[in-house]
Amino acid sequence: MSGPLVCENKFRQRVCSGEVLVGTIVSMNSPQAAEILGDIGFDWLFIDAEHGTHDPLAVESLIQATGDRTPCLVRIPVHEETWIEKMLDVGATGIIAPQVNTVVQAKQVVNYAKYPPQGERGVGIARAHRYGAKFEAYLGQANDSLLTVIQIEHKDAVENVRELAAVEGVDALFIGPYDLSTSMGIPGQVHDPTVQEAIAEVLAVCQEAGKVPGIFGIAPDVVSRYVEMGFTLVGVGVDTLFLSQAASQALKGVRS
Q1: Which pTM does this prediction carry?
Q2: What confidence score (pLDDT) does residue 9 get?
Q3: If DSSP states are collapsed to H, E and C, what string results for the chain?
């Protein structure tokens, strides 16, 4: 018995309605880890194919491990047609494109993520189409159901944020504070006033343009503050850090 079509989920509607949705980064190539995180109750999973070791087959396994219960957005490593198409074809609920600094790049991402007439996504048969069994149904709904997210993680993107927010087909602008701080010459200093000013500017532009504001943070208290500011698509923590921190606490607890 095949599972529900990826395009039939309501995740994009929830995101675009402004509901606060909390996800976490899956960087390990471990279906078990993805399954555990999905069962915990995260609203979505951020599968990191940019910094993680995930190839398309690994991403497919991670998505399968969630049992279609938890929407998975995949961060692609580059803005290439093949990567975008493959991630959507294996069943991603949407893609996150890193380092989108110009309107040309943003339009390219949308073009590859959308079927005609909105874009030029290639047509093939894969898991997203239930291997052909629900091919026509998927093609008919994919453009309206899959999420397209661009990352604002460079000072150039902040300078161009109004133009980026105006690109049709972009659903959300997701800030990467750590890369943003690095582009400003202060790596890792995400709480520096200049970085926080840039974050506030992107948030304001998103709210004016009707685009979903997103952001990532390591610690829950930091992410909670971002939610209070008005961010709604948020990511907290990384699978490797969760494992490391929990194991370290257990070890210290026993030795003490």
Answers
A1: 0.93
A2: 59
A3: CCCCCHHHCCHHHHHHCCCCEEEEEECCCCHHHHHHHHHHCCCEEEEECCCCCCCHHHHHHHHHHCCCCCCEEEECCCCCHHHHHHHHHCCCCEEEECCCCCHHHHHHHHHHHCCCCCCCCCCCCCHHHHHHCCHHHHHHHHHHHCEEEEEECCHHHHHCHHHHHCCCCCCEEEECHHHHHHHCCCCCCCCCHHHHHHHHHHHHHHHHHCCEEEEEECCHHHHHHHHHHCCCEEEEEEHHHHHHHHHHHHHHHHHC
Is 129 catalytic? The answer is: no
Parallel, antiparallel or unpaired: strands 212-217 and 233-238: parallel
> CA-to-CA distance for 248 and 180, rounded, in angstroms?
30
Catalytically annotated residue among 51, 54, 79, 191:
51
- Quickly tell me which residue has 């490797």 as its tokens: 240
Query: What's the pLDDT tens digit per position in 185-244?
Result: 999 999 999 999 999 999 999 999 999 999 999 999 999 999 999 999 999 999 999 999
How big is the chain, counted in residues?
256
